[in-house]
Batch of 2 targets.
Target 1
Amino acid sequence: MSASTTVKHPGTEKFAGTEPIMNATDLTAGYLPGVNILNGCDLVCYPGELIGIIGPNGAGKSTLLKALFGLVKIHSGSVTLGGEDITNLKANKLVQAGVGFVPQTNNVFPSLTIEENLQMGMFLRPKLFSERLDYIYDLFPVLGDRRSQRAGSLSGGERQSVAMARALMMDPKVLLLDEPSAGLSPVRQDETFIRTRRINKAGVSVIMVEQNARRCLQICDRGYVLDQGRNAYSGTGRELADDPKVIELYLGTLAKDVDESH
Ligand SMILES: Nc1ncnc2c1ncn2[C@@H]1O[C@H](COP(=O)(O)OP(=O)(O)OP(=O)(O)O)[C@@H](O)[C@H]1O
Ligand SMILES: [Mg+2]
């Protein structure tokens, strides 16, 4: 790891000499030719890390995850997976290479049952199906109980669970999650954060975008604050949560809301 990597990504010093699982360097990307939404983003994830991405609405958080997963055109910069260049590789190739992605919305097949949705994730590796299914139903007991129910009849939070379960069926090395706690009750949000940590502790590297910034910084190893398509701040979750500038600019309102509720 070069000195500049450490400067760009404070908190990574202990990984000196380790190959990152995913490394995005100086990304510019967008939906239309000549119009960049990401304006030079950097993100690194080392094996076993849980990375949080926070920032205001429209900052480009979802765009960054989609760029990593080959769904948004990268105009310049590069992405590597375990040292191999994967810049602009298509999503199906990335799934085979060990990347899982759970989008923010429209993330299940509504007319299929829960179990059929899980099977859809397995088209590349049918032999693994039953083994992974046991693991998934242990992680999400509710999905096991309701395996024959159509996904379209589930609540938003339950659909999010199905989408996460589907990505996990492929046994990914790195999981990209876009706002897994969005729209959930506080109890369900907490379950989601705990489950995400459990998945991560079982060996899956996680890159998670979250609206619930304070909670995200509590559970992630390191975080990135994205603003207007650029890295604004990065560091360990604790450093960011304690940084007066981050609090003032990105956590202030939330902190006030929490205080007022007591
Ligand atoms: N499919 C699209 N086509 C064109 N522009 C888009 C598209 N999706 C997003 N954008 C634009 O890209 C910018 C960043 O959007 P993005 O969804 O990445 O933000 P975000 O940080 O995820 O926001 P949020 O917190 O609201 O989810 C916005 O200005 C948005 O209008
Ligand atoms: Mg988003």
Target 2
Amino acid sequence: MNLNFTAEEEAFRSEVLDFLRERLPQRIASKVRNGQHLTRDDMAQWHAILNEKGWLANHWPKEYGGPGWSAVQKFIFENECAIAAAPRIVPFGVNMLGPVLIKYGNEAQKRHWLPRILDGSDWWCQGYSEPGAGSDLAAVRTAAVRQGDHYVVNGQKTWTTLGHYANMIFCLVRTATDVRKQEGISFLLIDMNTPGIEVRPIITLDGEHEVNEVFFTDVRVPVDNLVGEENKGWTYAKYLLTYERTNIAGVGFSVAALARLKLAAQKVTRNGKPLAQDPQFAARLAKVEIDLENMKTTNLRVIAAVAGGGVPGAESSMLKIRGTEIRQEISSLLRRAMGPYAAPFIEEALQEGFDGEPVGPEEAASAAALYFNNRKLSIFGGSNEIQKNIISKMILGL
Ligand SMILES: Cc1cc2nc3c(=O)[nH]c(=O)nc-3n(C[C@H](O)[C@H](O)[C@H](O)COP(=O)(O)OP(=O)(O)OC[C@H]3O[C@@H](n4cnc5c(N)ncnc54)[C@H](O)[C@@H]3O)c2cc1C
């Protein structure tokens, strides 16, 4: 197994770096770097720039508009983007629904929906979780009852990320109740503008409106919007989740955040010395850096295995756990480094163009908000406890 990049892969990295230098809008990168809120337009602008280059749907096969990259190229691209403070690609259409449609959608669905994901005509959100169906996802109760050439949908989804921006939602719905719960689920595409849909905001601890509740009352959905076969949705749902989990590891985000943390720890002083020289702080900093280096190697090991024809299994759960723990530890250390300066929650500091009086180091303004926001990492995409269950089943056979 060779964990070094080849000359071609290094040339590819240079190409990515040139592209980021030329095309990543610095206004947006600065917001990402400072932990400020991105607007819908910011995200859509970055998607459009990537799409123009043919790099938006980097997991898709060439025939559907993907660049035809290897696993290593995707790894390089995602890491360099994160290090350059590019916004993350909004995953719901490109990274989640796209691969499901490519594998399980019919020709008409592929022809209609895939180009619209690429050119931004549709903004998708994910309607999996419900109150009472999170970790136990197969317990979804939102019901879709067939009436002629429509399904009539009633129920509720929750934690729907960016649902307030979306015009489309892909949902797990219950189409049968007299079978094992996994066997009565279907995968339905629903237009958010259909009468009977209501989106209500959930405001999180950091004051952000990122997630929502979505209510369905007698919502009529054409049967053409069913993906694959009725009652086979659980298979498609699980396929989508492995894509979601591998993306959450976020090595590049941790590399960028660690660099920022190290700078901050040099600037901030404790007892007249840079915080980076405080033995306790330095020990935690060193530990997280070592953990990150280890995870990078593990990630490359998984990629090398995939490049050699293997399929990631429990490894995507392993990467999800370690990746999110590392990201949380880095944001926790940044908050600690800022000390009392991280305490005031200055909501305006999270908006573009904040010109208030800086209180303490510039990193302080967003440190607490980032810390709180990153609590979500070990919960979504299947909580870390659930990933541990998966690992124990697949590797230890428990
Ligand atoms: C910020 C954010 C964004 C999200 N975005 C979306 C989205 O866009 N679309 C969507 O569909 N969902 C989304 N989710 C939902 C997410 O997938 C669920 O929160 C997650 O699956 C956990 O489900 P739950 O919240 O119902 O918690 P529960 O399932 O009630 O779990 C509560 C706690 O119990 C633990 N637990 C549960 N079962 C077990 C078990 N068998 N063994 C050990 N421990 C267990 C869990 O690990 C957790 O700590 C989002 C969540 C968050 C926080």
